[in-house]
Amino acid sequence: MDEVRDKFNSMARRIHFFPSVMAAFPLYVSDGSYEISYLLLFLSLLAKAAFSYEALLHLVDPPFITKGMSRFYKFFTIANFEYNYGVSCFSFAKIFFTRKEMNDIFDLMRKSDLMLGSLAEPPDFRTQIIQDGLILIMMALPTTIRFFNLSLWTFANAAEQVYLTWVNFTIYLSIAPFLQLAFILKNRFNLLHRCLLNFAARKQQTKIEQLIIFHTNYCDVSAMLNDCFSQQILLMFTVTFMSIVLGSYRSITAYVVGSGAFVTAKEFNALLYQIMIDDKTNDIATNKKLQLHIAMKREVQFTACGFFPLDYTLVHSKKVKLHFAMKREVQFTACGFFPINYTLVHSMVAAVTTYLVILVQFEQPTTSVNHFIYSNSIPNSTYPTALTTTPM
Predict the structure, then answer these.
(1) How many helices (H) and strands (E) does the chain have?
(2) 8 A C-beta contact, residue 163 and residue 55
(3) Are 65 and 74 a contacting pair, CB within 8 Å?
(4) Can you give 347-365 as a three-state secondary structure string?
(5) Residue 231: its pLDDT value, please?
(6) CA 221 to CA 107: how far, in whole Å?
């Protein structure tokens, strides 16, 4: 048991230590003191806010506000940047003030892992590290491109890229513990799936009942995790949606005007955040339903009249527990407004496409009027005239 406890404590420290390492705060975070890293990150956010505000305040013509754009779009763009920063600050403050709930989550997971014993192996974080590395590369890509293109390297461009990179970076850090814990829950549900199939094949009813208890604990952990991070996820989805709409509109407008393709990696890494969260939450729910459905199918049979046991040695209480365990859903939501799954990505893409079509249509009349005025200013001799007949 001591070995299992050490493995779990090491895994817990890694979850809280990993965001601190990415934010250049190499603190050795132990149980009960991980709040220091989040406090330092929050203070560093305030320092960055002062720099970003001064840069935006004193820049007469920031690079992200191109000529020819309406005042409403300029105001909406700056408001979006400030909103992104506010989301990052709120997310870190929310994590800092919900440390008690996070400790409760770890305590419940620790109890379940201790009951599982040697089966509770720590998951492989190599996939997570690769995904985090790709996100960091996507964040640093715009700054790197502007650094090598000296014609675009100005103080205004540098201030914009530092601001955008830092805001995206902190928003990702605020949900990094959620991604790590969701990854661990996915590993635990897969483990329960394999154990249920093994014990059901051997007709070990007592162990099946124990696994149902473990499953209930992990469902409770999922619900507590959703309560801790639902507000951050809702705000992050709002940031993602606004960033994709504004970035796509800006890119299309710049392309139509002829100022070149003004595309940054901000929209891509924002969509990558959501795909990562959808992938983990969707896998957790799918694997949970699959494992219990298979175990339930082996022991009971559903008909119009109710449940009838195939194995008559199955006690009625165990049958009821298995039935209620299968009916319990594991679903992450954004404050209850909408579920987090792959359909959310489809809805976002459809909404963005609709808004872009509307925005392009708003820009079309201005272009047509300008073309009409320009055409009328050209001498009529340059245009072919209609054929006229002269009297004989």
Answers:
(1) 10, 2
(2) yes
(3) yes
(4) HHHHHHHHHHHHHHHHHHH
(5) 79
(6) 10
pLDDT in tens, 290-313: 666 665 555 544 433 344 444 444
CA pair distance 268, 218, nearest whole angstrom:
33
Alpha-carbon distance of 10 to 339, in angstroms, equals 32
How far is it, in rounded angstroms, from Cα 123 to Cα 179?
13
The residue type of 176 is: A
Find the helix packing angle between 205-257 and 342-376, rounded to 10°: 10
Tell me which residue of 95, 104, 106 sits closest to 39, measured CA to CA: 95
The DSSP annotation for 5-16 comes to: HHHHHHHHHHHH
Q: What is the pLDDT of residues 175-206, one digit of tens each?
A: 767 777 777 777 777 777 777 666 655 555 56
302: enclosing H helix or E strand: strand 300-302
What would the pLDDT profile of 78-100 be if each residue is shown by its tens digit?
666 666 666 666 766 676 677 67
- What is the pTM assigned to this prediction? 0.60
Q: What are the residue ranges of helices labelled H in 258-341? A: 266-299, 316-327
Count of CB atoms situated within 10 Å of the CB of 319? 17
**Strand positions, DSSP E, the chain:** 300-302, 307-309
Give the Cα separation of 105 and 182 in Å (integer).
Answer: 12
385 or 172, which is more confident?
A: 172
Per residue in 221-277, pLDDT (tens digit) is: 888 888 877 877 787 777 777 766 766 666 666 666 655 444 455 555 555 665 666
Per-residue pLDDT, 357: 74
DSSP 3-state of 301: strand
Give the rounded distance of the alpha carbon of 238 from its chain centre: 11
